[in-house]
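[scheduler] slot 2 assigned
[scheduler] job type: sequence-to-structure, two independent chains
[scheduler] chain ordering preserved from manifest
[runner] begin chain α
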Amino acid sequence: MPTSPWRSADTFPRRLSLRTVNGKTQLVQQPVGELKALRGTETDVPATTVTNTTTPLGVHGSTLELKADLTPGTADRFGLDVRTGAGQRTRIGYDTTTGEVYLDRTASGATDFDPTFSSTEHAPLALGGKPLRLHVLVDASSVAVYAENARGEQVVLTDQIFPDPSSTGVDLFADNGTAKLSSLKAWRFASIWK
């Protein structure tokens, strides 16, 4: 990992709890409620459908909280790209062919410092044609993804990224078909140091 201007990283604090899903007890993670105090003005993005393309959503920031509901349609893969710009993106997607949520940092910015850093993380989450709910926290050098299906099953993915400071956009994408963003709420985070 690059060690300048900092060393290592912490993720956003989380609240852990147990929830019964389909008759089984599941560990559930959520960002702590105190993070809401850092939210700036809410941006609501209208429902948007994409087919075989990537569409900018008009949301920008190096520190963001995003809450999105997406429906797969016919797409093989669909989701959100964060920290976009300068040819960079960190892709948060769902692969309908494998039934997995994924976090792809292969184009997330600086990745050449170690051949194993440029990677994609996967976790199984069955949608059954129902919507995917994403709660995403983006910091200067990290992305935390809380993904949930309609039954309340959840997976959480977190990775460190090193994008260019100018890469601040958020895009919607769909590969090999159509997907729909039903709703997106976005907030920029204020600094905890000021």
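[runner] end chain α
[runner] begin chain β
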Amino acid sequence: MDRYELRRLDYTLSPDQIDLQSAYSKFFSTHSTIEVVRAAEPEGFDKNLWERLCATGATSMAVPESAGGDGASLVDLTLVAAEIGRSLAPVPWIDHACAVRLLARIGALAEDSAFTQDVVAGRQLVALDPHGDDVEGARLVPAGSVADHVVLRDGDDIVRLTAETRPARVNNIGHLPMAWVDPAGGEHRTVLASGPEAVAEYELALDEWRVLTAAALAGLVEKTMQIAAEFAKSRYTMGVPISTLQSISHPLANMAIVVESGRNLSRRAAWFLDNEPEERRELASAAFVYMADEAARSASGAVQVQGGLGVTTEAAATAYLVRARGWPLAGGDPAVSARRIAHIIGARVSAEGSQRAHLATPVTV
């Protein structure tokens, strides 16, 4: 067994990771209540919550030490993302973290620059366009209406746009601070890197976005399960809790399975991206596609458990449902990620087949 074999199969958290998870669970349960989430819906962003979050080191932890950050692993970041999903926190932390990690990898952060210090500390917010190369021209960027800078791919170039005036927010089902951004628009435009290596780094950033979004959706499903379970335990029919009925208990059990499998899959994908990025590249897309589908199904189930109450706009379950449907669409159609899985696996199978054929070819002396 090589030194990585155990970690490929073991998702147990270290004591430090458990403490990290607990700290952010307490933070978001205190500062991102459902009332805070509802109040932030018109803008899709709570500036006060963002500043509090940055003060905890959540933005600097995502950045490598070489660029002035704290050098947390991607698995560590999935723990924070899960708590963001659990609380529906109206802050674009995932987009900012992935964008700044990309900037660090392509050498766009200099430790002694004011820009680097501001983005690492979260004083300037950086948005990432999660569409990749499947969109040409203007595209909807999830944090575009609140970002100071937008990092996107324009052909073979990685570009940073800085707008003097932030674009107007576009209303959307996930209540995100989404806006139209055009790579060729009037913003200050800086080409940060070009060529195949730059494109590969951008693809890695998209995989990180998929993994962290999957982790957030797993946290979202866990909270919807808790909301539905508490409701089911307190409502009775024919003298018994409705939670004893198969039509209620079976969907709740399925939610628990989704939480565990989504959490483990996102952590596994994160570990491979950190340690063996070329070994199982399909895992990031697999985690995202799985949770994009299951989160919406689970949140719908939670609403159904609550019946007439669940479909009201005041119900917490409804807030989770609209985000379960909206967040995965921030990066475009999840089917694009599904096709990416097929492409990666198909290329691997083809390469393995060619290698076996080569080894089976007799050598003539």
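[runner] end chain β
[qc] chain β: The longest strand covers residues 188-194.
[scheduler] slot 2 released
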